[in-house]
Amino acid sequence: MSKILIVMSAASIWERTDGSEYPTGYWAEELAAPHEKFVQAGFAVDFASPGGVLQPLDAHSADPEIAGPDCAHYVEHAARALSEFGPLLKLDEIDINDYVAVVIPGGHGPVVDLYKDRDLGRLLTEADAAGKIIGAVCHGPAGLLSAVDENGKWLFAGREMTAFTDEEEQSFGTAEGAPWLLASTLRQKGAKHSGGPAYQAYNVQDRNLFTGQNPASSAPMAEAMIGALK
User: Fold this and answer.
1) Which of 46, 131, 150, 175 is most exposed, with minimal Cβ within 10 Å?
2) Cα 103 to Cα 136: distance, rounded to the nearest angstrom
3) Bridge partners of residue 102, in order along the sequence
4) What is the C-alpha separation between 224 and 221, in angstroms, rounded?
5) Which long-range CB contacts under 8 A does 200-205 form with residues at least 24 apart?
6) pLDDT, average across residues 4-20
7) Residues 96-136: pLDDT tens digits?
8) What CATH number should be reported for the domain holding residue 75?
9) Cβ within 8 Å of residue 143, ≥6 positions away
10) Position 1 confidence tier, pLDDT thresholds 50, 70, 90
11) Can you list the GO cellular component terms from the UniProt entry (predicted)?
12) Which residues are paired to 204 by β-bridges?
């Protein structure tokens, strides 16, 4: 059975520019919707993170006023999937040859740790060189920033992609005090970033790279990835 790797952040705190701490964790829909689609399509799914640390749930993703009426399903599915999988794999022990695709879901964690994680950078570089499918949604594309060579050149410069927009960050109330904003930074690094209406599904494919703008884009991203893998 072909396997897909979901890479989670290990961060539970996002430190703000004023020194305050903002609790974060994985966003239920962004983890659960792709996992559910992949399993239904016949793929096995592994979970990994820096150090094998299990990130907590972002409580906002369990609030129907924020995450929508289906959030309870995603919260339950994510919790069950993680529990059944058991201890997360450690990123530094992953062999990308074991997987046909790698996916990075969001929550704010990736802007805390994954954007600079050397092990993730190695995996993404190896995956891209092998033409494997790479997916990232919402704040997950921050993880793509980890893929730099010894000269500091970013692997994904010039590629078309989307991610949580600066406007969505402002609307969510987390732009002010953020150490950096994801969409702006991706553009500054050379990405061809585009976005759609706030909180509506918007997805971009550039060759083997599949990205989604926000939680609503998670399932469509997974479906597009499955289509490419099939």
Assistant:
1) 150
2) 6
3) 5, 134
4) 5
5) 202/162, 203/162, 204/160, 204/161, 204/162, 205/160
6) 98
7) 999 999 999 999 999 999 999 999 999 999 999 999 999 99
8) 3.40.50.880
9) 7, 104, 110, 114, 115, 117, 120, 124, 136
10) confident
11) cytoplasm
12) 211
3-class secondary-structure state, position 149:
coil
pLDDT score, position 180: 98
Question: What is the CA angle 103-105-108, rounded to 5?
Answer: 145
Strand runs labelled E in the chain: 3-7, 13-15, 21-23, 44-49, 89-90, 101-104, 133-137, 160-161, 192-193, 203-206, 209-212
86 contacts: CB under 8 Å, gap ≥ 6: none
Tens of pLDDT, residue by residue over 27-72, are 999 999 999 999 999 999 999 999 999 999 999 999 999 999 999 9
The tally of domains found in the chain comes to 1
pLDDT at 54: 98
Looking at the DSSP bridge assignments, the partners of residue 168 are none
Rounded CA separation 173/200 (Å): 18
The full DSSP string for 175-207 is: STT-S--HHHHHHHTT-EE---STTS--EEEET
Tokens of 104: 């990075």
Range of the domain at 110: 3-229
Q: How many CB atoms lie within 10 A of CB 87?
A: 10
Give the C-alpha separation, 166 to 157, whole Å: 19
pTM of full prediction above 0.85? yes
Place of tokens 């995956």: 127
H helices then E strands: how many in the chain? 7, 11
Phi, psi for residue 27 in degrees, rounded to 5: -90, 120
